[in-house]
UniProtKB/TrEMBL annotation:
<dbReference type="InterPro" id="IPR036038">
    <property type="entry name" value="Aminotransferase-like"/>
</dbReference>
<dbReference type="GO" id="GO:0016829">
    <property type="term" value="F:lyase activity"/>
</dbReference>
<keyword id="KW-0456">Lyase</keyword>
<dbReference type="Pfam" id="PF01063">
    <property type="entry name" value="Aminotran_4"/>
</dbReference>
<dbReference type="InterPro" id="IPR043132">
    <property type="entry name" value="BCAT-like_C"/>
</dbReference>
<feature type="compositionally biased region" description="Basic and acidic residues">
    <location>
        <begin position="116"/>
        <end position="126"/>
    </location>
</feature>
<dbReference type="InterPro" id="IPR043131">
    <property type="entry name" value="BCAT-like_N"/>
</dbReference>
<protein>
    <recommendedName>
        <fullName>Probable branched-chain-amino-acid aminotransferase</fullName>
    </recommendedName>
</protein>
<feature type="region of interest" description="Disordered">
    <location>
        <begin position="74"/>
        <end position="137"/>
    </location>
</feature>
<dbReference type="InterPro" id="IPR001544">
    <property type="entry name" value="Aminotrans_IV"/>
</dbReference>
<feature type="compositionally biased region" description="Low complexity">
    <location>
        <begin position="98"/>
        <end position="115"/>
    </location>
</feature>
Length: 289
C-alpha cells in the first residue's frame, strides 16, 4: 500500500468559490491516473457534498479576471508584447510536459459555490469536516487529500491573505532535489525533503526556502513555485524536468501566456525581480538573502 496521499490546497473566496478549481481537479486526476490511485472520479462529487452546492458550469469571468489580477501583485509586468512572446514554447511548459488538455486561452472553468451551511460528515471512504461556516465573508483554506485506496478527506480553515506590499525573504537550502525523481512532479504528502529544507532556517530568518537540484539549478520553494521577472514582460519559471511540482498557479500563468518555462541560475535570480507563488497565496514579491 502506498504510504502517501495526493493533496490539493485550495482557496475559497466569498462570491467566487474555490479558485482555479478545474486546474486543481485536473492535476489531481492526472496524478491519480499515473500513480494508480483510486477514487479520483469521486473527488468532484465529494466537494459538492462537503460544501453543499453543485459545481458552477459558467463561472463569472469578470470576477475571475479581477481575482487573477489581484493575485498577480504586479500586473504591469505583463505588457501586450510580453503576453504574445514565445507562446508556443510557453505551452510546452508544465501543461505540455504533463500532457494536460487545458486550452491555452482558458483559466479556471468552474467553481464550487457554497450553500452557506456548516457541515461535518464521516461516511464510507469520504471524510469531511469544515471548521468555519461557509457563509462567512472571509477566505478559507481548503485541504483535500486522496489516498491510494480512494479515501477522500476535506477540511477547511480560515485563511488570511498576505498584504499587497509583502516581500518574502528567501533563503537557499543545502538540501537538494533529484531531478530524476518523477514523484516530485506530483503534489503528495511525502514532504521529507521540503521539511528538511524548511528546517534549515528558522521562520524568523526566512519566509521561504528555495531548493536547487543536483545540478545547482533553482527549482521551487518548499510550498511555492518560482518565478523570475527579467524585464521581458513574461515571467520565467523552471521546467518540471528540473525536478519540481507543476504548480496550479504556475500552470495558470503559463496557459495565460504570462509565464514561460526556462532553466534559471542563482545569478539570474539575483539579477532580476524574484517572485514566489502558489494557488492559495497568489504571486508574492521576494528577495534572496
Amino acid at each position: 500500500m502506498t504510504d502517501f496521499s495526493l493533496i490539493e490546497t485550495m482557496r475559497w473566496e466569498p462570491g467566487t468559490g474555490i479558485v482555479r478549481l478545474r486546474l486543481h481537479l485536473a492535476r489531481l486526476k492526472r496524478s491519480a491516473g499515473r500513480l494508480g490511485f483510486a477514487g479520483a472520479d469521486q473527488v468532484e462529487s465529494a466537494l459538492e457534498e462537503a460544501f453543499g452546492a453543485p459545481l458552477s458550469s459558467s463561472p463569472n469571468r469578470s470576477l475571475e479576471d479581477k481575482r487573477m489580477n489581484k493575485d498577480i501583485v504586479a500586473p504591469s509586468l505583463f505588457s501586450p508584447a510580453g503576453r504574445s512572446a514565445e507562446r508556443s514554447e510557453a505551452m510546452r511548459g508544465s501543461v505540455g510536459e504533463l500532457g494536460a488538455s487545458i486550452p491555452p486561452s482558458s483559466g479556471p472553468s468552474g467553481h464550487l459555490l457554497p450553500a452557506g451551511e456548516k457541515r461535518e460528515q464521516a461516511r464510507g471512504d469520504l471524510k469531511t469536516g469544515t471548521t468555519e461556516s461557509l457563509d462567512q465573508p472571509s477566505p478559507l483554506r481548503v485541504r483535500l487529500t486522496l489516498s491510494s485506496s480512494g479515501e477522500i478527506a476535506i477540511t477547511t480553515a480560515p485563511f488570511t491573505p498576505l498584504p499587497e506590499n509583502t516581500v518574502w525573504r528567501v533563503a537557499v537550502a543545502a538540501a537538494r532535489l533529484d531531478s530524476a525523481n518523477r514523484l516530485l512532479r506530483h503534489k503528495t504528502t511525502r514532504r521529507e525533503i521540503y521539511e528538511a529544507a524548511r528546517g534549515e532556517y528558522p521562520p524568523a530568518a526566512a519566509d521561504e526556502v528555495l531548493l536547487l537540484n543536483e545540478k545547482g539549478e533553482p527549482c521551487e520553494g518548499t510550498i511555492t513555485s518560482l518565478f523570475l521577472d527579467d524585464g521581458s514582460g513574461v515571467l520565467k519559471t523552471p521546467p518540471i524536468s528540473c525536478g519540481l511540482l507543476a504548480g496550479v498557479l504556475r500552470t495558470e500563468l503559463i496557459c495565460a501566456r504570462r509565464a514561460r518555462v526556462q532553466r534559471l541560475t542563482l545569478q539570474d535570480l539575483r539579477s532580476g525581480r524574484l517572485f514566489m507563488g502558489n494557488s492559495l497565496r497568489g504571486l508574492i514579491r521576494a528577495r534572496l538573502i
